[in-house]
Design brief:
Length: about 475
């Protein structure tokens, strides 16, 4: 039995690192983004926002195992999507065999890729906080995962996908995850509609310290996000980890500097935005570029999305019209596409060889010109731009169709009474009063009255009162 549990093709160190990396990515969502979303919004939306993230994580896992994993990385059905089947539930057979990448079982790949899919949906939710009908969100998640995410993942990451064969470089998800979530979130926000005018005018975080805690989990979890992309505990994984944190720190500092110069004071929320754009921008390039290039990418990711968010957004009628709650289009869509283009410019051929193997196609334009083969570099930049165009078009089209389909079943937007009350009206729960005076807890389906007790949060006290 020991031999069967550890076949000759299994590299235990790689397997252990891949499971650890997947767990780090999972922690970015639960509790990372659950905490960040629950604290960065108004108090009345704290429960609903956190719950949207928690629900998405659970729903994606079930769908991923039943059909979506194989649609993303299975046998080809079409050049852009795999054939769905139940292999993701076959622990004794398919999942125990070596996966399509790495020296470990397919079950490890299934888990690693699941946490990427889950965080993509949670990032989409960031555009919709403060007004989307929770029941509509429950339907949206499996539909969007099935008809958008699987297509992007198969096309870019599967060895059988047409963009993978075309040579598009996306080291760890700048396209598949971040550009997708940015465009999909913005598109869904258009169809769902805006928050109330009062919420759009004033939407202060209810707990900045918890926002920093969630952001910290997101930053540190990115060690697994990019460090796990090589599918092995090798030197490329180490390079990816260092570049990730170097780019992120640079981006945060540049964003902070711009806030200080333009607005006269450093902003905690601004620093978090700069951190996120740095993490996103380096993702498609993490193990493919030198340290100086990672810092250059950080300088650009701290300034270009800052400009699109602080300047362009206010001057564009379309951008200003669509209520993208957490500016996911800028922090993930703009930063992800920026990182994709910079990958095509700055990818170092030796590092690219560690990831893609001995293939001369994978080279940044800067190095290609230096080596006297500018044509290869221009082809790579063209491939990167084509990948961006495909992901943008895919997510505008599919997200629109999914939203319109969901709208046939339930309203996409909460009604005016629910929008005014927030968590109490939607869930019967309040972020900070549940264990206080107990008013909200009493009305909750989990409260005292639900179990037949009088309207008090302390049944024992109620019994004592009756005796007196």
């Amino acid at each position: 039995m020991a031999t069967e549990a550890a076949p000759e093709w299994l590299e235990k160190g790689d397997n252990a690192w891949q499971l650890a990396a997947a767990t780090l990515v999972g922690l970015q969502s639960v509790p990372g983004l659950v905490i960040l979303y629950g604290s960065v919004v108004k108090k009345k939306w704290a429960v609903n926002s956190a719950f949207m993230a928690l629900y998405a994580f659970a729903a994606v896992l079930v769908c991923w195992c039943v059909w979506a994993f194989r649609m993303s990385f299975g046998d080809e059905l079409l050049p852009f999507v795999g054939r769905p089947d139940l292999a993701g539930l076959d622990q004794a057979g398919f999942l125990s065999r070596q996966g399509f990448a790495g020296a470990y079982p397919a079950s490890t790949l299934l888990f690693f890729q699941f946490v990427f899919a889950a965080i993509t949906l949670i990032l989409v939710a960031g555009s919709l906080l403060g007004r989307m009908n929770f029941r509509a969100w429950m339907i949206f998640v499996p539909l969007w995962l099935t008809f958008s995410y699987t297509i992007g993942a198969f096309s870019v990451w599967s060895p059988k996908g047409f963009l993978f064969k075309a040579g598009v470089m996306d080291f760890a998800g700048g396209y598949v995850i971040h550009l997708s979530s940015g465009v999909a979130g913005f598109t869904a926000a258009y169809w769902v509609g805006p928050r109330t005018a009062k919420d759009r005018e004033a939407f202060p975080p209810n707990n900045i310290l918890l926002t920093l805690a969630g952001a910290g989990l997101l930053w540190m979890g990115w060690t697994g996000f990019n460090g796990g992309a090589p599918y092995a505990a090798n030197i490329d994984a180490s390079a990816a980890v260092v570049n990730t944190h170097l780019c992120t720190a640079t981006s945060l500092l540049v964003w902070l500097l711009l806030d200080s110069i333009v607005f006269g004071r450093p902003s905690v929320i601004g620093a978090v935005q700069g951190m996120i754009t740095g993490l996103v921008c380096i993702t498609p390039a993490a193990g493919l570029v030198q340290g100086w290039a990672a810092m250059l990418m950080g300088a650009l990711s701290g300034s270009v999305p800052w400009c699109t968010m602080m300047v362009l957004h206010k001057r564009s009628r379309l951008l200003a019209r669509v209520d993208d709650t957490l500016a996911v289009l800028h922090t993930h869509g703009v930063a992800g596409s920026l990182g994709g283009v910079l990958t095509g410019l700055l990818a170092e051929p030796r590092l690219a060889g560690l990831f893609f193997g001995d293939d001369p196609r994978y080279v940044g334009l800067a190095y290609a010109v230096k080596d006297g083969r500018a044509g290869a570099g221009l082809r790579q930049v063209g491939a990167q731009l084509a990948g961006i165009a495909f992901i943008v078009a895919l997510n505008i089209a599919v997200t629109s169709v999914v939203c319109l389909a969901v709208r046939l079943a339930v309203p996409l937007r909460l009604n005016e009474e629910q929008l005014a009350a927030g968590d109490d009206a939607i869930h019967g729960e309040d972020a900070y009063a549940v264990w206080g005076d107990g008013e909200t807890y009493d009305q909750s389906v989990h409260g005292a009255n639900h179990h037949g007790y009088p309207m008090t949060a302390n049944p024992a006290a109620s019994k004592a009162d009756e005796m007196i």
